[in-house]
Amino acid sequence: MKGLKYALLSLCVAMTLLVAPSAMAAKSSFTMGIVLEPPHLDPTAGAAAAIDEMVYANVFEGLTRIDKNGAVKPALAESWDISADKKVYTFHLQKGVQFHDGSKFDAADVVFSFDRARSEKSVNAQKTLFKPIKSVEQKDANTVVVSLNQATGSFLFNMGWGDAVIVDAASADKNKSNPVGTGPFKFKKWVKGDRIELVKNDSYWGKPARLKKATFKIIPDPAAAVSAMLAGDIDAFANIPAPETMSQFKSDPRFKVVIGSTEGETILSTNNTRGPFAKLKVRQAVAHALDRKSIIDGAMFGFGTPIGTHFAPHHPAYVDLVNKFEFNIQKAKALLKEAGYPDGFEAVIKLPPPSYARRGGEIVASQLAKIGIKLEIVPVEWAQWLDQVFKKKDYDLTIVSHTEPMDIGIYARKDYYFNYDSPAFQALMKRLDATVDVQERYKIMGDAQRMISAECVNGFMFQLPKNGVWNKNVMGLWENSPVQANDLTEVYWAK
Amino acid sequence: MYERFVEVFSHGMKNRNFVAGGIITIAFFGLALLSYVWSPHPIENINISDKLLSPNAKYLLGTDHFGRDILSMLIMGAKNSIIVAFVAIGIGLGIGVPLGLVAASQRGWTDEFIMRFNDFTLAFPSLISAIMITAIMGPGAVNSIIAIGIFNIPVFARVVRGAALNIWKKEFILAALSSGKSKTRISIEHVLPNTSSVLIVQATIQFAIGILAEAGLSYLGLGTQPPAASWGKMLNEAQTFLHFAPQLAIYPGMAIALTVLGLNLFGDGLRDVLDPKLRRNR
């Protein structure tokens, strides 16, 4: 019996010795939790933010890139020259760059990528980014000349989007399941429904990544996300889906809590041609009936900045229109009466899964009930939402966060799911596209913000915060989200 | 009928399970009935400034993350559970009992066919099949009632058939047959009344299972939809608050556990009381 005891004890000691060194050295791998599983991994062929949040800057790179402050930085283009009329961009490419499969990167790949995105058959989700391009020509192996139809102020920024990354002709069609880019991380494997693994690209052209291995763990359930974080199963959550737990993480010395900004305008999207909502007065009544403070307190536990238009508050061109339609039940009721609905009406609100939408929807329903608009709440899954609401426009109201940067231009799209068709706004956007001068651009952006606010195209609610929680030893993660990305290129462990 | 009731009741009062279960069950029904005339606060009223309050004079059990009164939510949830479980048992009884009676009276191929189909339905765990049904038909209170009702059918069919087979062997049935009554009439006039005690006991147990199933479906987001209250939904919403506002989960959890315990005790007691053989042995 005694012998057994000693045997067990020595076994324990041996185990500890075996395990200890590996635990010490394990700090080159990193696991990040994400809420949504991407439908595939090709950022040039899908609108889902989850794709960019995994591969942008990590696996794929564009000519330019957007850094953590939202500034445009050179990436695969080492430098560029812009002609005097701002219509011709000459990009000088990095030399000695290889794709992950070993094939060489040169000007031909840029021409291929841009032509692919611009073509008739293109499935690119942001084709408008490429609209101003007249031609893309290869001058020599390391120089590309892009000519534009008109001067486009945001062209370099646009080329930094995930949708404008450079792909290789040979592997482009397989990028959905096996992404091959030029980035500092290589795609390793995708266990559907569980995780996506990246490993360091040892032949990377630029500053090498400091992590050897990065894993994105898919955890859609907020409660499971919180427990996984508390248990230490994951090292970071760029935006944890449970804002109510922030105070709990804050008081825990193991974690660092960083509340950052995102480009996510969270809005009560309104079908502008459907029933009563086609009337401006009804939409104005809804705007007056929304108590943004309650919505932010209830759905986001106080995290979030109220907005009065579709524009990020941290942008220099932002115009504060929050008080244009202040919370005022009497005004809202009066407007409804003028619109011909003194007793209100019934409508349906479809809510996608995120808690800001599900919770926000319940609060909005209770607020609109006070002016007589009775909402039936219909929770839908993302696939249903994309199909019914986004594609078929079969909805009255919905709540969603538009996380693309600088996306006020969507209001100029006639076939967008808002069903908002305003020639005046479309003309304004055309003018914006043609303007290069920054101050002039900001002025037009301001006019655009005022226009959609005045017309109450949607119920503007709040800017989605980035509720980041990570292990206190993790360094180099982005604090804000100027683009849809989880850039791991500079992440490292302090100890 | 009245004498029978008095007899059952007087025997029941001597049975501890019957009394304890009965009290809990009556309290639960009482709460649900109360909701029709009065609840402390309207649950549609979202009042964010009052969120996550601890119990106080205005809100006896405190408030949830939307500032809704938890006591009111529990009361409305009780009503919701009862409606779902009741209608679901109605479906189970309405379809299952005739099937069982037909199987017992016809025997042969009809019996085989009905009972094998029964076995087939029973082979799927009840909650899993309810999830499947609501996933196909879409979430919602009505669909969850139908789903729970469907898995009640084979349970009742089997219980009734078993009891009916015994009764068909009795002499008074033979007498009825020889006097020219049809099998259908005998089933209705003689067999059904004699299976009533097993049915009542089974219904009580199924009631508890129905409440659990409703809570389970609502927990998964397939049952009752907001803004209506359901215990399962309350549990679901409480998940992320577990570490700092555990009361949000404790109250609905206790409500479910107590009600199911009460119904099961009541069912057990009722079986002992209604079955003369068991009664004598105790």
Write the layout of secondary structure elements.
The complex is a heterodimer of chains A (495) and B (282).
Chain A: H1 2-25, E1 29-34, H2 49-55, E2 64-66, E3 72-74, E4 77-82, E5 88-93, H3 107-118, E6 133-140, E7 143-148, H4 155-158, E8 185-191, E9 195-200, E10 213-218, H5 222-231, E11 236-237, H6 246-250, E12 255-270, H7 280-289, H8 292-300, E13 305-306, H9 329-338, E14 345-351, H10 355-369, E15 373-379, H11 382-391, E16 397-402, H12 423-434, H13 438-454, E17 459-471, E18 474-475, E19 492-493
Parallel strand pairs in A: 1-10, 1-11, 14-15, 14-16
Antiparallel strand pairs in A: 2-3, 4-5, 5-7, 6-7, 8-9, 9-10, 11-17, 12-16, 12-17, 13-17, 18-19
Helix pairs in contact in A: 7-9, 8-10, 12-13
Chain B: H1 2-12, H2 16-37, H3 70-106, H4 108-123, H5 126-137, H6 141-168, H7 171-178, H8 183-219, H9 231-238, H10 247-274, H11 276-281
Helix pairs in contact in B: 1-10, 2-3, 2-10, 3-4, 3-6, 3-8, 4-6, 5-6, 6-8, 8-9, 8-10, 9-10
Structure description:
- The complex is a heterodimer of chains A (495) and B (282).
- With 495 residues, chain A is α+β, with helices and mostly antiparallel strands.
- Chain A has three domains: 29-33 and 179-260 and 466-493, Periplasmic binding protein-like II (D-Maltodextrin-Binding Protein, domain 2); 61-172, Dipeptide-binding Protein, Domain 1 (Dipeptide-binding Protein, domain 1, Alpha-Beta Complex), CATH 3.90.76; 264-464, Dipeptide-binding Protein, domain 3 (Roll), CATH 3.10.105.
- Chain A contains 13 helices and 19 strands.
- Chain A has helices at residues 2-25, 49-55, 107-118, 155-158, 222-231, 246-250, 280-289, 292-300, 329-338, 355-369, 382-391, 423-434, 438-454; strands spanning 29-34, 64-66, 72-74, 77-82, 88-93, 133-140, 143-148, 185-191, 195-200, 213-218, 236-237, 255-270, 305-306, 345-351, 373-379, 397-402, 459-471, 474-475, 492-493.
- In chain A, strands 1, 8, 9, 10, 11, 12, 13, 14, 15, 16 and 17 form an eleven-stranded mixed beta sheet that branches.
- With 282 residues, chain B is mainly α.
- Chain B has a domain at 80-265: Orthogonal Bundle (MetI-like fold), CATH 1.10.3720.10.
- Chain B has eleven helices and no strands.
- Chain B has helices at 2-12, 16-37, 70-106, 108-123, 126-137, 141-168, 171-178, 183-219, 231-238, 247-274, 276-281.
- In chain B, helix 4 crosses helix 6.
- Chain B is elongated and about 75 Å long.
- The two termini of chain B are 25 Å apart.
- The model of chain B has no long low-confidence stretch (mean pLDDT 88).
- Chains A and B meet through helix 5, helix 8, helix 10 and strand 15 of A and loops of B.
